[in-house]
Structure formats: C-alpha cells, structure tokens
Specification:
transferase, E3A/B/C-like, ligase activity, four-stranded mixed sheet, alpha/beta, Hect, E3 ligase catalytic fold, ligase, 142 residues
C-alpha cells in the first residue's frame, strides 16, 4: 500500500504536471532569464515577486500627495480617521481597490505613495470614490 501511495503521489505532483510546468518554465525564462535572478537573496526575490506583506499605514499616510486638498481639510482628516480604525483585512482591500493588488511591490513601503484628488464636481454627494489604479490616484469627493 505504501508503494502504491508513493507512486500515486509522485504521479499527481510530478509526472502529471511535468510537461505543462516545463512549458511554463521555458516561457518564464525567455522573459526573465535565470542568470538575472541569481543576484537576489531568497528574501529579496520573495519581496520582489510577492510584495511586502506587512505595512506601516501611518507611513503610507505620510507619503500621500493631495490634489485640490491639503492634509488639514475635514474630508482628508475624516478619511484617515476612518481608515486607521479599519481592520487590517479592510485596509488591504482598500490597497487592492487603489492599486489592483493587496501587496506593495517594487521599492517598498517607505517609497510607496499615492494621490488623493478632489474630483471637483457640482454635487459631490452623488459621486462615489473611484481609483485610477495605473496612476495610483484616489478620486475622493468632498
């Protein structure tokens, strides 16, 4: 029985996926040659591929640039008061809304920032917040 289980597990995890994995690896290495990855330590490579998993949300607030607002405007103060009261999972959901990912990739949290912009509409109560994920802009009506 042990031999059967060992052979079955080997088939499911190795042999059955061998060809698709080789195809994936060939395509991946065409775009990202292995020699380029060797300059990273394993921890650095993990952060590069997965992003940072822990965040300093106050540092994020510090890195925000405002358009049509300043950091003392009531709308901005309300936004950050509510934001900092959110549980960690909801803050990551906001990050996903803003950037398209719940991780901070690239330079790291100390350099990550976004813009909060006043869309300057006639009736802000009729507009919901929206985000431009490519430009890292949160359009936040007053």
């Amino acid at each position: 029985r042990k031999e059967y289980v060992d052979l079955y597990v080997n088939y499911m995890f190795n042999k059955s996926v061998k060809k698709p994995f080789e195809d994936f690896m060939q395509g991946f290495l065409r775009g990202c040659p292995a020699r380029n990855w060797k300059m990273f330590l394993p921890e650095e490579l993990q952060v590069l591929l997965q992003g940072h998993t822990t965040f300093d949300w106050h540092l994020l607030e510090k890195n925000v640039v405002y358009g049509g607002y300043n950091k003392l405007d009531q709308t901005i103060r309300n936004f950050w008061t509510v934001f900092h009261k959110l549980p960690e999972e909801k803050k990551k959901m906001f990050l996903a809304f803003l950037t398209g990912s719940d991780q901070i990739t690239g330079y790291g949290p100390e350099r990550f920032g976004f813009r909060i912009v006043d869309p300057q509409v006639e009736n802000p109560d009729e507009l919901s917040p929206r985000a431009s994920t490519c430009q890292l802009i949160l359009f936040l009506p007053r």
